[in-house]
Amino acid sequence: MLLYFLIGILTLSGCSFFKQKQDPVPAVQSLLNELSLYKLDNQKRLHAGDLYEHSLWTHYAATALIEEKSPWVANFNFSKRDKELLSLAALLHDIGKAGRSDLFGGTHPTLQYRVAIDDSGKPVKITYTSDHEEHVAIGFDYLTDLWAPLEQGRQFFSSRGIPLSFQPLFTQLNVTLDEQKIVAILVGMHYSFGRILRGDMSFDDFLKELKRYAQFICYGAIDERLLRLAVLVQVADVTGMSYVKPRTTWIIQTPIDCSAVHRDVLSAYNYFGYNTSKPLTVFYELLAYFEQQKEY
């Protein structure tokens, strides 16, 4: 098992811990290469792009929320590092849709990856069906392998069946252990604010879920900053369901654009009503509810 872990580290890190930050850094590029293989098979789907495009669009959207002083970030002083951690969580938010051993191995009760290979046996396409919410907890587990008990942990597998660790990515991006916990929590929470808007989750349930993720990895007390970031990653996710213009970020210095076929799709942010007053009103009601509570 240790041998597999070391192989995974070397693979995801680009076989070196000692390279200077590149454009993008080796571990990020390795991850993007993996994500580019995944193609949704849903004909009636919410995302304009596939996993690769959606992850990039969500990353760009998260960066823009703070850089462009969106109404979602009003009345709070986010730091430069807050923006960076939010954008990293946005890039990784759907990672639980990929790399799943149960879908590669056919042991999941309803879902399975269909892997296409070329003449040399190299995987060139992985077709998958969206699992709705299952991937949220899986993504959290992928990013918390330092804290999860060995028998409970889930590990990301490459398209070639090699287990990969996300630690090299955090190392190359100079993400501390406490910051890694924040990123993992945001990935775990990226679906929850939308559930509040749909009426599927109460404010109290939202805060309990946030606390449960934090306690699992010994993060500490929940504060307003973490709560706001947990909502912002959802806003970025919705925005990234349709095309978002590329921009320079702390992770991707040279913006990566996508095929022009995706650029004329209607804005998902508008389609789901995030351009109306209701989501922001609910957001501030959630903040007010949090301020009234004592146990969090």
Task: Give structural attributes.
two-stranded antiparallel ribbon, 296 residues, disordered N terminus, mainly alpha
Query: Into which percentage range does the β-strand content fall?
Result: 5-15%
Total number of strands: 5
Structural class: mainly alpha
Order of helices and strands: HHEHHHEEHEEHHHHHHH
Kindly give the count of domains.
1
Estimate percent helicity: 40-55%
Largest sheet: 3 strands, mixed
Side-by-side strand order of the widest sheet = 1-3-2
How many helices in DSSP terms? 13
What shape does the CA trace take?
Answer: globular
The Rg value, from CA coordinates, equals 19 Å
Average predicted confidence as pLDDT: 87
3D architecture notes:
The chain is mostly helical and 296 residues long. It has helices spanning 2-12, 26-35, 51-67, 80-92, 101-105, 134-142, 167-172, 177-188, 192-198, 203-216, 224-239, 268-271, 277-292; strands at residues 38-40, 114-117, 123-128, 156-157, 163-164. The protein has one domain. The chain has 13 helices and 5 strands. The strands form 2 sheets. A 3-stranded mixed β-sheet has the order 1-3-2, with no helix packed on it. The protein has a two-stranded antiparallel ribbon with strand order 4-5. A hairpin with a 5-residue loop joins strand 4 (156-157) and strand 5 (163-164). The longest helix is centred in the N-terminal third of the chain and has 17 residues, at 51-67.
